[in-house]
Amino acid sequence: MKASSEMFSQKTKASLLVSNQNGNMYTPSVYGCLASLLAQYSPQQLAGQRIGVFSYGSGFAATLYSIKVSQDATPGSSLDKIIVSVTDLKARLDSRKCISPEVFAENMTLREKTHHLANYIPQCS
Fold it and tell me: Which Gene3D superfamilies does this one have (predicted)?
C-alpha cells in the first residue's frame, strides 16, 4: 500500500467522494465515482484527458473502458454543463439529513405503497 499511496492519491482518490459517503451502490457505483472525479476538477483541467473506468461484478465479470474528455471547455460547452451539474456534489452530500432506522422504514413503506401510482404528489422528500 505504501509503495502505491502517492499514485493512488494522484489518480484515484478524487473519484471516491460518493463511495466514501454512500458506500457501495452496486450498479451505479462506477458512475458515482465518475461524478466524484468530475466534481473535483474544472472543465479546463479535464479537457482532452482520458479517464479510465473499471467495474466488476461479484468476481464473475468485469468491464474496463476509457472516456476521452472533449477538448472544448468553453462556457456552455457539453463538458462545462456536465461539470457545472456536479460542482455542488459535496454540498449535496453534506446536506443529507440523518434519520432513525424507524423513520427510514416508514419512508420505505410509503414508497412501496405509492410506487407507480398515477397523479401522486410526494408526501416527503
Answer: 3.40.47.10
Query: The C-alpha cell of 55 is what?
Result: 467495474
Burial 78-115 (b: 16+ CB within 10 A, else e): ebbebbeebeebeeeeeeeeeeeeeeeeeeeeeeeeee
The residue extents of the domains of the chain are 4-96
CATH second-level architecture of 4-96?
3-Layer(aba) Sandwich (3.40)
- How far apart are the C-alpha atoms of 67 and 89, rounded to whole Å? 21
Give pLDDT tens digits for 80-101. Answer: 999 999 999 999 999 999 999 9
